[in-house]
Write a structure and sequence with these properties.
heterotrimer; A alpha+beta (about 150); B alpha/beta (about 625); C alpha+beta (about 260); A: alpha+beta; Glutaredoxin; 2 domains; four-stranded mixed sheet; about 40% helix; C: about 260 residues; Ubiquitin-like (UB roll); five-stranded mixed sheet; four-stranded antiparallel sheet; 7 helices; about 30% helix; globular
């Protein structure tokens, strides 16, 4: 996939050039590209003067980072305890079935990525599914297909 | 404007109070994450438009408040009309015209939007008459749902930064530490260590630098009080940090927030910026010798970063692997300097303790656990949400009086506290007064205050499996007992859930658990077996049922159950498309049938059936 | 100097010295898998745990990793307490389930009576025990070419982006210090391949045997002031030359005396 990496400098300029900024920079890159492209990691290593191996360690340690490109819309199924006992597994099953992918995968047309995430902190509305930036609470089986259609 | 001294601060306070007085009529719209998910921002827009139409544009800021979370997220968006305290639930934009005309400009009440008491079906008008709120005592959550979360002047109007002024000009650092110690405030992040004593240890260490870190990572699944506090009362958190910093002699502070909490990050950033602009953060705060800055460090999703040494590595931009803590992080913390790490709820209590005094605070709660605790009451309970109650209240009061009992009147089975480090408490212990020590005694823990209520349809072995899956996923992988041991525990529990368990597994799990607790490097591993151990202790029968009888009494574990359609099936055909595996056949108005070898026991048919026609056995 | 008691014997130690150092000095055998003198202790494998107590602790004991616990005066250490032995065999049992084919793990486990794991063997379990000695040594050497990647049960040692690491000079410190000989490398036709990276080895100007990689030699000559041409001779030829030199010196001495 070809990217325009000009925006990287805008991200780097926001932070002091030290290791302390590493996670924040990676988060911004993840937001910009929906994943961490190799070239971006290499530039980060250079600009922040952090060995590439350490950048890679950090990129693979934390949940919010991904090294593979994601679909246009990321669907996150919350699997916090409250969601779990209110049927998150069933929603996962339904979404996997409907999209014909497993959690963690992206549809072939690159439209959707399905993820299971630890608690998103909206427990009072369990079960919760986050589509893009939008939180959907008390999700019922009958609403699942709509979620995927939702633009 | 800048706030150069206490006089400036009091001037803002006066103006803010005068404004409040001049406009007693207000429309409060809850703008916590829950209500926003339900469409609160559209409500705000509608109210703004409505006020404009009614020629109230100039005073919109005074009337319309975008407040923090009330904790009652399930019924959002929530709108409150003041001064009557009329409480509207599930408000839609189309209701706003009515609300403004009748309820805001007039004194009428719009019945359909009122809260319905789940116990007797009656309508309740006032916020404070609802049992969910009535039994609460709000200290940490005092400003949530009351003030505009992002308005510093409003915070100052409700005695904000008065505690800071008091410590800077009337108290020495030691007196501040003394007061906090005397109040009995214990860390609300899980450990329950005395906040004052922690500060004292840190202050007494001679070092170039001291740090204050506010832990807003809130990794416990099922808890969201820190999120709501950071979103709804960011200045309260900052003031708590400033007081801690003054007490221990720190000049730099960090707030470690989960990146999954974008609204909390946004509100904290705004609050910090406002403080920097006015001089409440920076050099010589309020004209004193005290200087302090706060930076935000966004967490990137790792439960293990709740462990202090891992969190500090993460703040420094490294992998969040804990280190052995024979030297504690309060002595050798961030960048090897002495560091006080307190969680959000702990810090937000501090300003009130300073203003009202240690004696006042310690008169609330129990002798050894003073004050209040915020719980996130969730799961199979009628009223779910955030509650703040005095320590020592019983679980029964929380679940049945405040929570309104179990959803659909099913029997109560257990309540899980303390997240993945805690345990499940059975019905026989419902009258347990809740505090730090009582929960630990029964094999659970306070943790960050998640209370997850379970009914008879929750399988306890499945819950143990759930927490082990979580911990295996979240283990950093550094030390063997945690990384390999928890993995093996999970494998055993998976076998039991699949009906392949043997009786010797129970003893094997007990011994392995003991070794994991003894041998692990950090708290994640040391307490990791707790959910399993506590369920084994109180619900052994259910394990035996899985192992010996090959049955899942709660009807959850797929390998041990079957789904059948009963004769009372109306033939509505709702379950047929819901089943993703083409396992249900049937015609309209005829009893449907499940083809057993196609059925994956996913439960979709059960979830959509409106006639209780699906039998799980 | 302070005094601590190990397995009933009073011994001397330096204040703050790690317990493991004292224990090993006393020739007491306790197993470790993640410990290496060249790098900071990490406390990952947990095998060096010992039981400690003090008279003032009222019979209460603690269990600590000796590699990280500083000696303090009056400490009473039991390196083979029943609980410690049980913990060690349990940990070795976990290791055995994860790395059933590793001869080093099998031997160590057998020493603690674990011949066969009671747990579920990991399918395709490799021999990397995630001790982190390789990555820590690579850091200490100053290259920081490889690191731990991922976390939890799926963690592994790998070069960044799983590609030939630019920072690697082929010094082989990682492979040569791996306790389970997991790290593979290939040396043939005057070249070296490790971490998917190919290196050219310097050939001895005398006999043609390979010495070290060009990159490593350059690094050492720039950073450690060792003349580059030192590496243009292999160990054997260096010794031959040294022997020759010594012989000449001896001859001169004889001539000078006579």
């Amino acid at each position: 996939m070809k990217h325009n990496f000009d925006n990287l400098n805008l991200i780097f300029d926001k932070y002091p050039k030290t290791q302390e900024s590493l996670i924040a920079v990676l988060q911004d890159i993840q937001k910009e590209y929906q994943y961490l492209p190799c070239e971006a990691l290499e530039q980060t290593s250079e600009v922040l003067d952090v060995p590439l191996s350490k950048v890679f360690s950090v990129s693979t340690f934390y949940n919010s980072f991904s090294l593979t490109a994601k679909g246009d819309k990321v669907i996150k199924i919350c699997t916090g305890t409250a969601c779990h006992i209110r049927g998150a597994k069933l929603l996962q099953d339904q979404l996997e079935n409907h999209l014909s992918i497993k959690a963690g995968e992206t549809t072939e047309d690159m439209k959707f990525t399905l993820e299971v995430v630890a608690c998103v902190g909206a427990c009072a509305m369990a079960p919760v599914v986050v589509v893009g930036e939008k939180y959907h609470g008390s999700v019922k089986v009958s609403k699942v297909k709509k979620l995927v259609k939702a633009k | 404007m800048t706030i150069k001294n206490v006089k400036d601060l009091n001037k803002i306070r006066k103006t803010s109070l005068a404004t409040q007085k001049k406009h007693p009529k207000k429309v409060l719209v809850c703008c916590g994450t829950g209500c926003i998910a339900n469409g609160a921002l559209k409500i705000v827009d509608s109210v703004r438009d409505g006020l404009e139409k009614r020629n109230l544009k100039d005073v919109t800021v005074e009337i319309l408040k975008e407040t923090g979370c009330h904790g009652f997220c399930e019924l959002g968006p929530l709108v409150i009309i003041e001064p009557q305290e009329t409480f509207y639930t599930k408000v839609k934009p189309k209701h706003i015209e009515d609300i403004l005309d009748k309820s805001f400009l007039d004194n009428e009440v719009i019945e359909p939007l009122l809260f319905t008491n789940p116990v007797d079906g009656s309508k309740i008008t006032k916020y404070n008459d609802i049992s969910f709120f009535k039994h609460q005592q709000r200290i940490a959550l005092r400003n949530l749902g009351k003030i505009s979360a992002h308005d510093m002047n409003e915070y100052i109007g409700v005695d904000g930064y008065q505690a800071l002024a008091k410590v800077l000009f009337e108290m020495t650092p030691d007196e501040v530490i003394g007061e906090v110690t005397k109040s009995g405030l214990r860390g609300r992040g899980g450990g329950g260590f005395s906040a004052g004593r922690k500060w004292k240890i840190c202050k007494d260490i001679k070092a170039d630098k001291h740090y204050v870190i506010c832990n807003g990572d809130e990794g416990d699944p099922g808890a969201f009080m820190d999120r709501s506090i950071m979103e709804g009362d960011p200045h309260g958190v900052l003031e708590g940090m400033m007081i801690a910093a003054y007490a221990i002699g720190a000049k730099e502070g960090y707030i470690y927030v989960r990146d999954e909490y974008p609204l909390a990050v946004k509100h904290l950033e705004k609050a910090i910026l406002d403080c920097e602009r006015t001089g409440l953060l920076g050099e010589n705060i309020l004209g004193s010798d005290f200087s302090f800055t706060i930076k935000i460090a966004r967490g990137a999703g790792a439960f293990v970063c709740g462990e202090s040494s891992a969190l500090m590595k993460s703040v420094a931009g490294e992998v969040g692997e804990p280190r052995a803590k024979y030297v504690r992080s309060v002595v050798k913390g961030l960048y090897d300097e002495p560091t006080v790490l307190n969680n959000v709820e702990t810090l937000v209590n501090v300003p009130t303790i300073i203003r009202k005094g240690a004696d006042w605070y310690s008169s609330i709660g129990t002798k050894k656990s003073t004050g209040t605790q915020v719980f996130s009451l969730v799961g199979k309970v009628r009223n779910t949400g955030l509650i703040e109650v005095p320590m020592g209240i019983t679980l029964r009061e929380i679940i049945f009086d405040i929570g309104g009992g179990i959803l659909d009147d099913r029997p109560f089975k257990a309540v899980q506290t303390g997240g993945p480090s805690g345990g499940c408490i059975p019905e026989s212990m419902l009258d347990l007064p809740v505090d730090f020590d009582s929960l630990t005694e029964v094999g659970s823990m306070m943790g960050s205050g998640g209370l997850i209520v379970m009914d008879d349809k929750t399988c306890i072995v499945d819950i143990a499996k759930y927490f082990l899956e979580f911990l295996v996923e979240e283990s950093c992988g550094k030390c063997t007992p945690c990384c390999e041991g928890l993995y093996q525990l999970l494998k055993i529990v998976e076998r039991i859930c699949a009906g392949k368990g043997v009786e010797a597994d129970i003893e094997k799990m007990e011994r392995l658990s003991e070794n994991i607790m003894l041998g692990s490097l950090c708290g994640l591993g040391k307490s990791g077996p707790n959910p399993l151990m506590s369920t084994l202790k109180y619900f052994k029968d259910e394990y035996i049922a899985h192992i010996k009888d090959k049955k899942c009494p709660a009807g959850v574990c797929p390998e041990l159950i079957t789904y059948e359609i009963l004769d009372n099936c109306t033939g509505c055909m709702a379950c047929i498309p819901a089943c993703g595996y083409d396992a249900i056949e049937g015609k309209k108005k005829e009893v449907h049938v499940i083809t057993q070898d196609k059925c994956t026991k996913c439960g979709a048919c059960y979830a959509v059936c409106n006639f209780d026609s699906i039998l799980v056995s | 100097m302070i005094h601590i008691t190990i397995n009933g014997k009073v011994v001397q130690a330096k204040d703050g010295e790690m317990l493991l150092t004292v224990i090993r000095r006393e020739q007491i055998d306790i197993p470790t898998l993640c410990h290496h003198e060249a790098v900071e202790p990490s406390g990952a494998c947990r095998l060096c745990m010992v039981e400690i107590t003090k008279p003032s602790w009222d019979g209460w004991c603690d269990y600590v990793t000796s590699c990280l616990y500083p000696a303090e005066d009056g400490l009473i250490v039991n390196t083979h307490a029943p609980k410690v032995n049980e913990l060690r065999s349990s940990i070795l049992d976990m290791f055995l389930a994860r790395h059933p084919k590793s001869p080093e793990i099998r031997q160590l486990a057998a020493e603690y009576g674990v011949m066969k794991t009671q747990f579920e063997e990991v399918v395709d379990g490799d021999n990397c025990i995630l001790c982190g000695i390789c990555t820590r040594i690579c850091d200490t050497m100053g290259f920081k070419a490889i690191s731990m990647v991922g976390r939890g049960h799926g963690k592994e040692v790998a070069p960044p982006l799983n590609m030939a690491p630019a920072a690697c000079v082929g010094c082989l410190s990682c492979a040569k210090n791996c306790p389970t000989n997991y790290i593979e490398y290939n040396m043939k036709n005057g070249g070296l391949t490790i971490w998917k990276k190919d290196f050219e080895m310097i050939a001895c100007t005398e006999c043609g045997a390979t010495t070290i990689t060009k990159e490593f030699a350059e690094y050492l000559s720039v950073n450690r002031d060792i003349p580059f041409d030192y590496f243009e001779k292999c160990d054997a030829c260096h010794r031959k030359e040294l022997a020759g030199t010594m012989g000449r010196i001896a001859n001169w001495d004889r001539e000078a005396r006579s």
